[in-house]
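I had to read the description of the data format several times before I understood it. The format is easy to grasp once an entry is in front of the reader. For illustration, here is how one protein appears when written out as sequence plus structure tokens:
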Amino acid sequence: MRRKFLVPPDLASLSTPSLLLERDVLVGNLDRMAARAAALGVTLRPHLKTSKSADVAALAATRGSVGGFTVSTLKEAEYFAGHGHRDLMYGVSIEPGKFARAAALIRSGVRLIVTCDHPHVARALAEAGAGLGVRFPTAVEIDCGEHRSGLAPDDARIVDIAALLHAGPGTELVGVCTHSGHSYAGRALAEHRAVAEDERAAAVYAAEALQAHNLPCPLVSLGSTPVALHAEHLKGITEVRAGVYMFGDLFQTGIGSCRREEIAISVLTAVIGHRPERNLLLVDAGALALSKDTSTAKLPPSQNAGFGLVATLAGEVIPGITVAGVYQEHGLITGPDPIDFARFPLGSRLRILPNHSCLTASAYDRYHVLAGGRLMAEWPRISGW
């Protein structure tokens, strides 16, 4: 497919490598997910781990029924709270070393929902919250099949943890949450729908177990981009969390979560070398600028993009070549057919579409934002924990 963007006159002189963001594509992706959540009858709690940007969050907050945001680090929670977002979920199981930072956010007026999946942590949260002068809003994490974190929906400890949180002097039981990271393994609509139903059923089963023991469960939260886009229904679910949909990437394209023209970010890079004897172009975007993610290698061979697809400054993918290898600061572009090196003079600029937008974006401290075919702004982004 062809991406139809004008070449901004100031883009060719931008320092490389740089992270580009197409604002119009981003807005289209935000609107698409907002409409999807509305159709499913659930609140949308967008995950900000991909963008890590207050400017992106500001756009997302105005679209659809957004019930706060999800974050993956306390650094993100502090950053977005500082930009006025007061309803946040920290989507990683909290550990005692982070209690004080989380409590500081809650004392500042932020409703920071934390998660746990172990009775010892629940008990420690309850005691620490009382000592720190807060009540930690807490969800019990359910494992719906990924087997990374959380408890199986029929595990008796779910009710035990919930009871501890409900009775604890420093905790507030808010419900249950789960995440189907294994939805990325799906390749067809039927597979995505099956994972979505498994996730929905797991969350609802756990919620009903709490309710059967007279424990409150106002929050029944699940999420991943494939599930949010492909679930047949989400009966019994109150909110959906997803994040990578904002930017999309080549892997999401490969599993049917977006189209190539819905990928909002790319890396601007410069041609720094010709190696005709090896049929290689060298560019200045290597492992640190693109990441070493090769997730598209798990897709059919025709969708294997190496370390990224190569596009013109106008964003049109150049067929037959990929970033086939990376060193720390070098990218190696090649293909099965001889490269026309005259088409890529030294110093010329190219754009690389990422395999995994979360990892690629993490290398940068800002987005160079394009709109209407022109470079319009720089939007800061954060990193760290």
Q: What stands out?
A: The first helix runs from residue 23 to 40. The first strand starts at residue 18 and ends at 22. The two ends are 37 Å apart (CA to CA). The chain has two domains: 23-247, 257-380.
